[in-house]
Design a protein that fits this description.
- Helix content is 23%, strand content 29%.
- It is built from 16 helices and 49 strands.
- The chain is globular, with a radius of gyration of 29 Å.
- A hairpin with a 2-residue loop joins strand 45 and strand 46.
- It has 912 residues and is α+β, with helices and mostly antiparallel strands.
- It binds alpha-L-rhamnopyranose.
């Protein structure tokens, strides 16, 4: 919709609002976030963006103005002359990502802020509760600390973890204390014997040689007069095994710690304690710890009280100062990894082979906590697997070289509790060897870990199998969003595969709040991009620059575009623009003058349907067709993005380039009758979804597409085609086929794994074959989210919650539910930046009942399928007597509404 129409429509809604809104609507401003985070500390975004939500007991509520005020304490917010910044009353409907416009903020500065709004009746709200954000260390010079390491210990194989410690005292009353900390390798931090934070896998995974995150923790309440500080360091991604070929030490061979503790006293003075050569270091009970291989812990070597005061570290060696860079330190922009759930096993199995196996009932990512009692030196070995084989035995062949083994050696002092520190496993089954005595269910607890994103979406419907599919998609996302979006969590891979991330990004953004998560990861994409614009296959890149595959490297454009659409985030488009452009320029130079991208090495429609039939080996979509289609799509999007960020010249340039690619595509890959040279579902889905066909051939191509689906009766797509498949069938009016694909239970389909008991999404359509045997051990993950990209269609099409790209961030919402596939209800809820969006329909007797929630400060267009205006009621009254802005369009009724909760009812005869 163009700007003018939007304004007219908004005006219409405002008029309507006058009629139906209670003039006394009470509006509350809440859920304040800075840079998508609740009260973040230690950020380094110099002009943070502020967002809030409005809740109201009235309907048709829009914000007409806001006022933000910022001060250095909550109390000071109320006194005008103490403010750091006041926006004044700004006439604006913007309540998402409003840029802080006050004076430059200093390192470590904390500011409090609050906001009030005026609604469309010019009624002002109360000020919100105060929120805050706090800056981290903004200049490298402010890092006074030195990197420290353990003398002479350079290694590229896993050695025992390092334990660092130091003590310090304070003599004055502490007002505030912050610790800034990072490491080469992973760290866990302790203060006076206690863990400082429940963040896991810190400092996270980035392109370490270019960007290294540090964390900031508020330790004010933990500081006493005598203090001890300790840290454990392990290899992690930095020095451990990562990538192919048993590759260790990709980033370096030396573990190191950097820590700075800033204490402000109540008398206005301050003190800084830092890592330096007076620190002590030793090894301890963690004999080895590897992300792929697991952890070995010898409890007999535990060091009682090592991170508390008074410990005798006389036998520890002095740490050595090491010269490592500090100018690459960045504050995290994502969300930390945390343990978010605990799971009890459902069964203890003795397999045919006699193995003792716990079934967690869910393919999960994390580890288990084990309770055990035995003799000193007893050794319990825990192994992890996703599946049992067809005989019911423990199966680990698909983990490839990853050992996924935790070993615990008992100290022999009554009940002992073990959980690993720096490893994670992807598993449903846990095999125990050497357990003293007979284990019970309660001896094992599953600890689920992932980037702690807020869950924003739910989707349910009348079919339990589809509900399980949705659960599997969400579990797949949880298991694979671990500071970076990985392909899988179990085998010797777990890498940030770009293709998987891009195809899943829309689904991901329905399920969880991924704004911060992707903002962080996209910076790594840009950091690892090669000077010629080529994008590595995995980010962070541990494959030494191998990259440039179509549909994978296009992550540069597609993920920021998703973040823009879902969160209305323009800054990510600005900040990633150079990276996006470099990628398009790379394709342009590789494609050359004929605009067909026939060069390069590509994954193609990865893992598409394959058969062993002699006359039909499976669906092969030519790689250059895919590459040229993506070249077109990314170029076109880049042009659009250039326009959005105000770069007119590029907008025109890439728009015109995209037209040339389209022409070349049609000439090369489309017959004059609309048939594609690769006559596959993926090819048609690409051509139709990306709008690559001339108007007169669209109908014919759609027919070929539909006929192919009908002929097979199943999907034949891989990673590239699958995310587009149902959306495109629906777009050409073939919901019947899209629902047929969704409902199919035999291989290949989304529900086939569900019927086999899957609790996550599989990498391959036939990870486990109907006869119970497995796919090739070389590549058979049972927790791979890529095919979960169908989630986007469930939320957007079946339940009907869609973003309007012209008014991104759900400022204007498109509700368009679709009944089909025998479903009698479908329900989606989505927590947008503006508040809760809901879309829920059911067939109740002879009636279609549809409920929606439109949050305050948004508007919506609702499309009611198979409806006649005079038969529809809204909140139990006749629709046409209550809503002016409505029309009949084909068989649907289309209306525009402002915020509120609405229920529609009308006869369902045409919907069944
Ligand atoms: C495998 C995985 C991954 C995919 C690459 C191309 O490693 O299946 O998901 O993106 O191949």
């Amino acid at each position: 919709m163009n700007q003018r129409n939007y304004l007219i429509r908004t005006a219409a809604i405002l008029i309507l609002a006058m009629v139906s809104t209670s003039m006394l609507a009470k509006n509350t401003v809440k859920s304040l976030v800075a840079e998508y985070l609740v009260n973040p500390i230690g950020i380094d975004v110099k002009e943070p963006r502020l967002s809030w939500q409005i809740t109201s007991d009235g309907s048709n509520v829009l914000q007409s103005a806001y006022e933000i005020r910022v001060a250095d304490s909550p109390q000071a917010l109320a006194s005008k002359n103490k403010l750091i910044w006041s926006s004044g009353k700004v006439e604006s409907n913007q309540s998402v990502n409003v840029i802080y416009g006050g004076p430059a903020l200093k390192s470590m500065q904390r500011v409090y802020w609050q906001v009030r709004i005026w609604d469309n009746n010019n009624k002002v709200s109360k000020w919100s509760e105060p929120a805050f954000w706090e800056m981290g260390i903004l200049e490298p010079e402010s890092w006074e600390a030195s990197w420290i390491t353990m003398e002479d210990e350079k290694s590229v194989t896993s050695l025992p973890c390092h334990y660092y410690r130091n003590e310090f005292s304070t003599s004055k009353k502490v007002k505030s204390a912050r610790v800034y900390v990072t490491s080469h390798g992973l760290y866990q931090l302790f203060l006076n014997g206690k863990k400082v934070s429940d963040d896991l896998f810190t400092p996270g995974w980035t392109t370490y040689n270019k960007r290294l995150q540090y964390q900031t923790y508020d330790v004010t309440s933990q500081i006493g007069s005598e203090n001890a500080i300790g840290a454990i360091l392990s290899d992690g991604w930095y020095r451990g095994k990562i990538g192919w070929d048993y590759q260790n030490g990709y980033y370096g061979d030396q573990l190191a710690l950097l820590l700075q503790l800033e204490i402000n006293y109540t008398d206005g003075t301050s003190e800084t304690f830092t890592t330096g050569d007076e620190w002590k270091v030793a090894t301890g009970p963690i004999l080895s710890s590897s992300i792929y291989d697991g952890e070995t812990y010898d409890a007999r070597l535990e060091i009682e009280g090592w991170s508390a005061t008074g410990f005798d570290d006389g036998k520890w060696q002095n740490a050595e100062v090491t010269n490592q860079p500090k100018d690459i330190l960045v504050a995290p922009q994502g969300v930390p990894v945390k343990a978010t759930q605990e799971i009890k096993p459902i069964e203890i199995i003795t397999t045919l082979k006699g193995e003792l196996v716990f079934d967690m009932g869910q393919n999960m990512v994390g580890w288990v906590r084990m309770k055990v009692q035995g003799k000193k030196g007893d050794q319990v070995v825990l192994k992890f697997a996703e599946v049992l084989d067809k005989e019911g035995n423990f199966y680990t062949d698909n983990l490839r070289s990853a050992e996924c083994t935790d070993t615990y050696i008992l100290k022999g002092v009554g009940e002992e509790v073990f959980e690993p520190h720096f490893t994670f496993h992807g598993f449903r089954y846990v095999k125990l060897e050497g357990f003293p005595g007979i284990p019970e269910l309660e001896d094992i607890t599953g600890v689920v870990i992932h980037s702690d994103m807020d869950r924003t979406g739910t989707f349910t419907c009348s079919d339990p199998l589809i509900n399980q599919l949705q659960q599997n998609i969400q579990w797949g996302q949880r298991g694979n969003f671990l500071d970076v979006p990985t392909d899988c969590p179990q085998r010797d891979e777990r890498l940030g595969w770009t293709g998987d991330a891009q195809v899943f990004s829309m689904t991901a953004a329905y399920n969880f709040d991924v704004a911060a998560f992707y903002t962080k990861w996209m910076k790594d994409v840009a950091a690892d991009q090669l000077p010629n614009g080529k994008v590595p296959h995995v980010i962070p890149d541990v494959l030494r620059g191998d990259g440039g595959s179509t549909a994978w490297a296009d992550v540069t454009i597609i993920v920021p575009w998703t973040v823009y659409k879902i969160y209305g985030d323009k800054r990510i488009l600005d900040e990633q623009y150079a990276s996006m452009k470099a990628w398009v320029e790379y394709m342009k130079s590789d494609a050359g003058d004929d605009y067909l991208w026939t060069e390069g090495s590509h994954f193609g429609d990865w893992l598409a349907y394959a058969t062993i039939n002699s006359d039909y080996p499976g669906a092969t979509t030519e790689k250059d067709l895919i590459a040229t289609a993506y070249y077109y799509n990314s170029t076109k999007l880049l042009g659009k993005i250039a326009g959005i960020i105000g770069n007119k010249e590029d907008a025109e340039k890439y728009d015109s380039l995209s037209s040339k690619i389209k022409k070349a595509f049609v000439l090369e890959y489309v017959t004059p009758n609309g048939r594609l040279v690769s006559h596959t579902q993926t090819a048609y889905a690409l051509a139709l979804a990306f709008d690559l066909l001339p108007e007169n051939l669209k109908g014919k191509a759609a027919e070929y597409f539909a006929n192919d689906v009908k002929k097979f009766g199943h999907l034949t797509t891989g990673f590239v085609g699958t995310p587009l498949l149902c959306n495109t069938l629906s777009a050409i009016g073939r919901d019947d086929l899209a629902f047929m694909l969704l409902n199919r239970k035999e291989y290949p389909s989304w529900l086939y794994p569900v019927t086999k008991g899957a609790t996550t999404i599989w990498e391959r359509w036939d990870g486990q074959k109907p006869d119970g045997t497995f796919q090739d051990v070389g590549m058979n993950s049972f927790n791979h989210y890529a095919y979960g990209a169908i989630g986007e269609w469930l939320y957007g099409h079946v339940a009907g919650i869609n973003v309007d790209v012209e008014n991104p961030g759900y400022k204007h919402i498109l509700f368009s539910p679709h009944v089909g596939g025998g479903l009698t209800n479908a329900n989606a809820e989505f927590m947008s930046m503006y508040g809760e969006v809901k879309s829920s329909w059911k067939i109740e007797g002879q009636e279609f009942v549809y409920e929606i929630v439109i949050p305050a400060n948004t508007t919506a267009t609702v499309t009611l399928p198979e409806a006649k205006v005079e038969q529809v009621t809204i909140n139990s009254s006749a629709l046409n007597e209550n809503v002016d802005d409505l029309k009949e369009q084909g068989n649907a009724v289309v209306l525009n509404l402002g915020s509120g909760s609405y229920q529609f009812r009308y006869p369902a005869d045409k919907l069944k």
